[in-house]
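User: I'm curious whether this sequence folds into something compact or stays loose and floppy. Could you predict its structure so I can see for myself?
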Amino acid sequence: MGIDPGTNITGYGILRTEGNRMECVTLGIIDLHRLTDPYEKLHYIFSRTSALIAEYRPQEVALESPFFGENVQSMLKLGRAQGVAMAAALSQGVQVAEYAPRRIKQALTGQGSATKEQVACVLKSLLKLEELPKRLDATDGLAVAVCHFFQSAPITQIENHCRKKALGGGPTSSQNWDQFIASHPERIRK
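Assistant: Here's the prediction. I'll summarize afterward.
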């Protein structure tokens, strides 16, 4: 399960994986716009995330970590949203991982500065989604799950194959991945 925490909208996506195959089980959003109390929002994120975990029983939950920006209050609010989603998973004994927004975009598109629309288009092709949701926060949550899947599998074998397939067989950034792997061998799982 992947979660993109937010204080107005939290996106989520759930994958079923087998070997190097992925299938989207569901994706959606937790809409918090109608709530005004910040603590009520945190409680709602916790309870909805808990309910999703209880319903779908994911083995692992991956979250997008808050990005570092200039607005400290926004970072604090996002960190709280991430923390309650994380607590919901941990309270049910589910393993948790977190990834920086740039890492998630790079895993799917090869570019850490990709737009939400670019990420969504790659996911649509990669997972054979019939249509994209109205709110791309849902595909952002799904992107976190796909990034975690790529991180948990041999990077060069699966990630480059999937990205090449999703982008229509065009060039991938395997050279960038080769450089990354050479620079960070401790990040590769065997």
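Summary: Residues 62 and 97 are 5 Å apart (CA to CA). The chain has one domain: 2-187.
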